[in-house]
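Write out the 3D structure for:
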Amino acid sequence: MAIFPQTRTVVPSPSAPPPPGPSGASPDSTRLPSLRHIGPNWYASVMGTAIVASAGATLPADVPGLRAVCTLVWALSAVLLVAVLTARAGHWLCHRDQAHAHLLDPAVAPFYGCLSMALMAVGGATLTVGGDVVGVQAALVVDVVLFAAGTAVGLAAAVVVPYLMVVRHRPAPGTASPVWLLPLVAPMVSASQGALLVPHVSAGQGREALLLACYAMFGLSLLATLVVLPLVFSRVVHHGPLPLALTPTLFLVLGPLGQSTTAVNQLADVAPGAVGAPYASAFGAFAVLYGVPVMGFALLWLALATAMVVRAVRNGMGFAMTWWAFTFPVGTCVTGAAGLARHTGLDALTWLAVALYVFLVAAWAAAGARTAGGVLSGALTAAPVPPRPATARTR
């Protein structure tokens, strides 16, 4: 099963809109044709860029000039968010038939969770480093707006996309994809980003309510992930590796793992000012007791996913928008490791966060450069081309 619109091979569902008429083009396809194939997966580039800024700013290491660089990356993420939001608005206005087809496509619909995460990733980076440019108060206002919008979209996607999968998509057995995690991990991003706003809420009922709401979204996302993750692993074990261009999506599994570790650590940081001493200390202990085992599993999955990507590269894997899966999920592991280093004081976790951040920056630079080249050449905005039959080695 394919994942990104540029490489999709999924057969349209019976409920999809009818094909275009004899002219070969739908009524909307001639308006701004460059926007016709800009799907919700493009928000991944915004997420991947914003996490470079926010993860770098919270890195438990003093690197000269890093914060200034992170501020520039944050500004780029904000520009990208505006650009992709504009392009997606044009897509819905000029290519409504294609937009509806995306919702009815099980390979594309889960990417609506990326809109939520893109909004909150930029909002969190604005509060973390953007305040150096726009001022703390303005950064707070921006973050509140983007957090509220992102959380609303994320909660809606966490319900609507699984609903569509049950009543409209009806995916065949053995076709589970890591992409199915995207709408489910969005509330986990709300949990971690909401922690940044807890200290800015007046002490009392409001602050405690926001803290506990974040923990509720943590639980929502975690339990939903525990339902889907076995399906993904079963698909890989019983049906073999994913198609070459889709192999990077295995890194998406790191998203709920790293983001949940980040969430419990950031929530533990702000718990003492929101709840009483017994619960505040319990939340602090839970951050370590939960985060260390989950980070261990994340490293196991990182090794497995890396091995699968190396195999895919040896067999001829080229660039696709799936490369953005190397960024945001790894970034959540950076912030998760940084949070554990903060709460345990272990140098080993600090070095782990630094090593993962180096990987993140390299992956972001590669994905960003190839994406920019594809946009300028028009290759990434052209109609999808059916993949060639696999002729590569299988070992």
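The radius of gyration is 21 Å.
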